[in-house]
Amino acid sequence: MSADEESTRVAIADRVYDALSAQFMSGVRLPGERLKLHLLSRELDVSPTPIREALARLEHTGFIERHSQRGYVVARLLEADEISQLMDARLLLEPAMARGATQRSSAGFLSQLAETISVMQNAGHRADGETLRECWVADEMFHGLIADQGGNPFIAKAYRSLGGQLQRFRIIGKSGVSHARAACSEHEAVYSAIEAGDADEAARAIGRHLTNAKHRALADIERAERSRSVVSAEAR
Q1: 4 Cβ partners below 8 Å, 6+ apart?
Q2: For position 173, what pLDDT does the model report?
Q3: pTM
Q4: Which of 49, 116, 176, 180 has minimal CB crowding within 10 Å?
């Protein structure tokens, strides 16, 4: 395969990855749905090869799971206790990451952090899957940059093992955009503390952000459960 062909294949796989992640974020594909190669190939008008590559990458986000008998399926949503446990784990790791990143901060690092915040700010008020995907990518990058700048590869590795698992709780509808705006404001507070060189405040700010994100996710789960109860009652 030539370099041009390889580049084209990678670009197509990237496009498939973006399209599918937007669908997961907007709730187009429901938990448990099988992702069949031939159907995705027809829907996205690409060959099966880039779809396989995109699905392999998406497995690491927690959006999908691979089963020996069924192939790839859309992952189930996290339960409330799992959300709590996940965010509690992040609360153990990320304040230390933020403290280390502040102590090792640089102009280039601050510029990259600011860019992720700008992306979230500019995403607008649309509640479509692509907007949510942009916010999700920017959010992941913000935390990943802090992990890398923190200076402790063991903490960074532990953080990345959790990865984007919170995104398995897919945000659907207008609440997704409001959550993104709230997260953006909280990111700004973390950024300001890092820029000021206040390591302790950076740790506190990211702790507040994670605590708030946990409460937002739990509130969404509670609303979803109430909605399901209403629908079930009306169906009886």
Answers
A1: none
A2: 45
A3: 0.78
A4: 49
